[in-house]
Amino acid sequence: MTPKALSVRAVRSVTLRGPLLTTRPTAYFISNVHKQQTRSFIPAMVARVASTNLLRYFGLGAVTGTAGVGGYMLFSDPDVEELTLDDIKVPELALHPSKGGMKDLPIVTNNIDDTSDEIDKPRLVIIGGGWGAVSTLKQLNEGQYHITLISPTNYFLFTPLLPSATVGTLDLRSLCEPIRKILKRVAGHYLEATATDIDFDRKLVEVRTKGTDPTDPSSAKSFYVPYDKLVIAVGSTSQTHGVDGLEHTYQLKTILDARAMKRKVLDNFEKASLPTTSPEERKQLLSFVVCGGGPTGVEYAAELFDMISEDLGNVFPKVLRNEVSVTIIQSRDHILNTFEAGISKYVEKRFSREHVNVVTNSRVQHIEPTKVIYDQKRVVVDDNGEKHEITETKEVEFGLCLWSTGIAPTTFSQLVRSKIPEQNNRRALVTDERLRLKGISDSSVYALGDCATIDNPHLVEHIMDLFQEADKDKDGTLTWNEFRDCVSNMVSRYPITENHMTKLKDLFDKYDIDRSGTLDMDEMRQMLSDIDKKMTSLPATAQVADQQGKYLGKKLKSLAMTARPPYTALDDPPLGPERSPVRATLAIAQAHESQYPPFKYTHLGSLAYVGNTAVGEFSGGFKMMGGLWALYLWRSIFLSEQVSLRTRSLIMLDWTKKWLFGRDVSIL
Amino acid sequence: MTPKALSVRAVRSVTLRGPLLTTRPTAYFISNVHKQQTRSFIPAMVARVASTNLLRYFGLGAVTGTAGVGGYMLFSDPDVEELTLDDIKVPELALHPSKGGMKDLPIVTNNIDDTSDEIDKPRLVIIGGGWGAVSTLKQLNEGQYHITLISPTNYFLFTPLLPSATVGTLDLRSLCEPIRKILKRVAGHYLEATATDIDFDRKLVEVRTKGTDPTDPSSAKSFYVPYDKLVIAVGSTSQTHGVDGLEHTYQLKTILDARAMKRKVLDNFEKASLPTTSPEERKQLLSFVVCGGGPTGVEYAAELFDMISEDLGNVFPKVLRNEVSVTIIQSRDHILNTFEAGISKYVEKRFSREHVNVVTNSRVQHIEPTKVIYDQKRVVVDDNGEKHEITETKEVEFGLCLWSTGIAPTTFSQLVRSKIPEQNNRRALVTDERLRLKGISDSSVYALGDCATIDNPHLVEHIMDLFQEADKDKDGTLTWNEFRDCVSNMVSRYPITENHMTKLKDLFDKYDIDRSGTLDMDEMRQMLSDIDKKMTSLPATAQVADQQGKYLGKKLKSLAMTARPPYTALDDPPLGPERSPVRATLAIAQAHESQYPPFKYTHLGSLAYVGNTAVGEFSGGFKMMGGLWALYLWRSIFLSEQVSLRTRSLIMLDWTKKWLFGRDVSIL
Asked: Which CDD domains does the record cross-reference, listed alphabetically (chains A, B) (predicted)?
């Protein structure tokens, strides 16, 4: 190391001093100072206890508490840690970032928890803290990337169980894992802020903090975070369908939504119990309406019904049970219409037994403070025996209305799309099969999860390549064997086509229009064009985002290992904008990436909780509809999908608590 | 029963009809309809599972989950209940209450969960849902009183552990027990409303509901609740000491306070982690100030310190630890000044080691948005060696400030006091030794807990009685034996004097001024007058409220048993205002009450958590200061004091969770 480099380091590291808080001074104090005192105290205490009123304290507690507390004492010893008095070094650049970029904002090259000024690793920036982001993170190793995650919420939320938490079956906190804990393993950085823009040319993400005073927008600050690799995983927002009055409804996206909904349900029950509430108001307060018959809406309706019949019925006046109504308004002709028809029908039959009203073929027109107005289509037979479809406008009063009719892109996604001409899908950011954002040439930006969609491969455009590679004998036609090679080649290149490439012999025969026993170029073009039309995008589910995150995390790990920077101990990597070893690394990585297999989605199945049991369909055609074991399968599947041992244990505890004590019916 | 009475009943009961929600239709459905289906499904499923992707679901879950889920399935069978299709009768008067009283408001004589129109039991109304109210309730039996509890919050909060919940050591929900669950045992009624006034003449409590629209005060409704016996247990509010700027501070009274404080602490850490936060802002954000050195303030400071050093230090940038400061501002010269001096000093020494700053002899002058300004008294020695007390004005910046400087009466308490001329204590409602509100002649109103204080017995006023009863030989003086009888008589009548009646021989000698070996009337008067001056009121603690509640509950139960109404099966108790059997009952009860022993407080001890250990002093002079076992004693004491098995188990689970996974550091 040259003397110059040394002095640079010395100047660039400053030390913050102050009263150093130690990790476990308390435990240290106990174990060292008071051990003796405690020993001599105990016999004195035992002697005295009989003559004091202390025993009264134990009372009932002695019965239930002693065993628990006794066992507890054995294992709950606060652990003792050594004091560390090392000064903590903070990079000078983290304290006083330089300014730049289009808007001359601070460029945060270093964070206050970086241990040195030099960032000799590629900068990986992840926007979002949901399924896609966390699954990516969990695949990475420490030391491969300088990772920064930007999200306005500092916890990951296990969204599929949110309806359960909304009625108090699960504790909301059991569904959350702090992002900082997940990042700790890879020594990543977290910024509690919202991404507002991306400068793709300078590779800068513009972010905005919440501000010290939430009521004063000017207290929020903007800055840039530079990236070498960027992952966009910002999720989605609710689809409004242009309906007015959504401010009177609840949406089920966040912890705060879930808590507000629980409070509202219990509050309505309390209000309905008051003697000054009129019978009409009582009916309105206890009418729960769900707009949208997808899994979220159906699960919420089922959980709500369970809570009302199992828990609220016990503590609230019995008469209220007669006044409760739960209504699901669905635009299609069946609820759970992404599931197989048998499952939809099973759930509808179940609901009708339980007096959960399912209103189908109905579109919400607008929403008033306590009323949903909707148009219902119905087929009537006139006097001449002819069928007509008529539309009737109906209304239903509500005390609480959940709006769960699908997803729409966030403002940020829309902004990103508007900056890239190649992005032509209004519903999501388009990526290639390797999750690289379309329109960004250097593979520096990825998008996944709800905010992204994988582009249709447009097979017809690739017909020349596909055909010529397969046509080994160059006779201008594909024999059955050549056709099979062609298909397997195509599927490995575009895994999304796999579902359409079943029953190959039938396909071959179908498109062999001239019955020649071979397929010529025109016949193949026809087939590919038909497949192109059938291609649909992946559903916006946690399962897809999770698999995409795993894929991307593994790929990023593999790229980092392939293109490990050629540093030696003597090399002193330059600081600042050049960072040439990092650039070299990235060039190698980019070359390698095209060899890395594309993303392949494996549909494991769909599940929905429908009130003390579950329905589901799995790959291989296996279905489950109801039954006690379906409930347990549902529970074990979600347990196995947890991101941490902590949340897994907490959720098991919650189910046990619910079984022992029922749901929590305090307004919290 | 006369035909007339029969017809009255028929008219007065109406039946609400509607879709009757059944208790457990789901479980019923599973067990009856799908048992067969399930049985045939299972072998099919087992066969298929190997060939499907289902196994992937289990993955990691198989390792941790199988045992738990397996065991879970054994005991978590949803219980099956029979369908009940009985129509539920609601008293007509509950649906359409008659109007009356001073303000012509609805008088709620019946609730919608009453099973009949006639209320043939004395009406017991409890205002409040804290320690006093719940301890009273827990002593009562079903069927003795028609009980109505009025409180704006529908859960009981275990306040002594609130500081623990505020930092995430305990789950807030573990400290809550729904009032409706507690009331269920005695078939009581709960009204989510606030008592706003009492009409003592007509025996009506005026209450106000929250209103359907919280932003619109006109949606709130007022009505009267009639009582025969009334318990006022409304607690207290925070003492402001006339300090301006309290809106910038937090108070620790409710669940919402605790949650807001936790969010603020974590939010400040997130803001301090941002690179755009200046070092000065960082210091301010991480400065936590507690005004008030009582148990609440000290426990919060200790818990906060624990959370920062044990949990936040692990996930937030290390450098933040150097910037954290915790300050306690105390007006007296020691913190925990209700404890014995040795304990105060022990805690101060402990805090000084942990860099928790204790600022004593300081009064807060006013509070600015991020700054506490206070006056500190200090003794200085001038050049001539003379001591002067000087007052310096100082300030400390904060990111969060807790205001916990004692209690003050609520607006409702003040209103009640203003209506009764005999109530002359500005700090609390005054009761006699039997907890009966002073100034209410017919023993119909009780007050207890933080809102009440037991009147000083004014022994001097009773000297004639006491003296003459004891002076058996009527010689105008008390011998040593007569004096002892006199004291024991006095203590049983006024238990509050007991603490002052120790070392009787010394007392006797001290007041035998003429050394005659006997006490004459003047000497006794001097003694009683001195004792009167020494008499202090009971502290405003959960312990006092709890014991008062137990006393009152037992007394009310006993009164009900003594004066059971003389009904026979043939008697049809009249409805409406006369309700003479109830009146007769109450007259008997009132006569009996004067024979019932007065309330006697037994101080069990005081406890405070001071950071991974606890301090305490108990009756009998036993003290504990620090040590690991003190922590466990502290824990077991609080476990034994829980109001339900549910909260007791949940709190044990929470302590285990904390030990396993640390505190919860998501912003929730």
From this structure: EFh (cd00051)
Shortest Cα distance, chain B CAs vs residue A80, angstroms: 11
Vertex A624: Cα angle to A618 and A627 (nearest 5): 150
Same domain, B121 and B210: yes
**pLDDT at site B325:** 93
Which of A479, A504, A536 marks a domain boundary?
A536
pTM (2 decimals)? Answer: 0.80
Residues of chain B contacting A56 with CB distance shorter than 8 Å:
602, 604
* SS3 at position A400: strand
A290 and A345 inside one domain: yes
Say which amino acid occupies A644: S
Q: Which residues of B touch A186 (CB under 8 A)?
A: none
Q: Higher pLDDT residue, A2 or B115?
A: B115
- CA–chain centroid gap for B125, Å, is 17
CB contact under 8 A, B176 and A666: yes
- Region A161-186: what's the mean pLDDT? 86
Contact flag A656-B72 (C-beta cutoff 8 Å): yes
Do residue A235 and residue A333 come from a single domain? no
**CATH number (domain holding residue B466):** 1.10.238.10
Q: Position A616: which residue type?
A: G
pLDDT tops 80 at residue B503: yes
Tell which of B17, B21, B633 to mutate to test the A interface (max A CBs under 10 Å). Answer: B21
Encode pLDDT of B217-259 as tens digits.
Answer: 778 899 999 999 999 999 999 999 999 999 999 999 988 899 8
pLDDT class for A656, splitting at 50, 70, 90? confident
By Cβ distance, the residue of B191, B355, B667 closest to A21 is B355
Give the β-pairing of A13-15 and A89-91. Answer: antiparallel
* A663: in domain: no
CB-CB neighbors (< 8 A) of A274 in chain B? 191-193, 209, 221
SS3 A136: helix
Q: Answer with the residue of higher pLDDT: B295 or A173.
A: B295
CATH number, domain of A125, equals 3.50.50.100
A464 located within any domain: yes
Q: Is residue B343 part of a domain?
A: yes
Residues B211 and B306 in one domain: no
Distance CA A638, CA B61 (A): 9
A119 domain-assigned: yes
Say which residue the tokens 């301006």 belong to. Answer: B244
**Same domain, yes or no: A361 and A318:** yes
Question: Which residue bears the tokens 């579109």?
Answer: A363
| Residue A486 belongs to domain spanning | 457-536
* pLDDT tens track for B187-221: 999 999 999 999 999 999 999 998 767 677 778 89
Cα torsion A357, A359, A365, A367 to 10°: value is 10
Interface contact B619-A666, CB threshold 8 A: no
pLDDT of residue B629: 66
Query: For testing the chain B interface, which of A56, A75, A397, A636 should be mutated: the one with the most B CBs within 10 Å?
Result: A636
Give the C-alpha separation, B211 to B221, whole Å: 7
Report the pLDDT averaged over residues A341-369: 90
Same domain, A464 and A588: no
Mark yes or no for CB contact B209/A271 under 8 Å. yes
Query: Count of A–B CB contacts within 8 Å?
Result: 437
DSSP letter for each residue of A285-309: HTEEEEE--SHHHHHHHHHHHHHII
Last residue of a domain, one of A536, A564, A581: A536
Q: How many domains does chain B have?
A: 4
Q: Please report, as a single letter, which amino acid is at residue B27.
A: A
A88 and B318: CB-CB below 8 Å?
yes
Q: Are residues B472 and B451 in the same domain?
A: no
Q: Determine the pLDDT at residue A1.
A: 36
Residue A603 structure tokens: 């549909």
Closest partner residue to A37 (CB to CB) among B322, B618, B627 is B627
pLDDT at site B592: 80
B554 shares a domain with B430: yes
Q: B87 pLDDT band (50/70/90 cuts)?
A: low
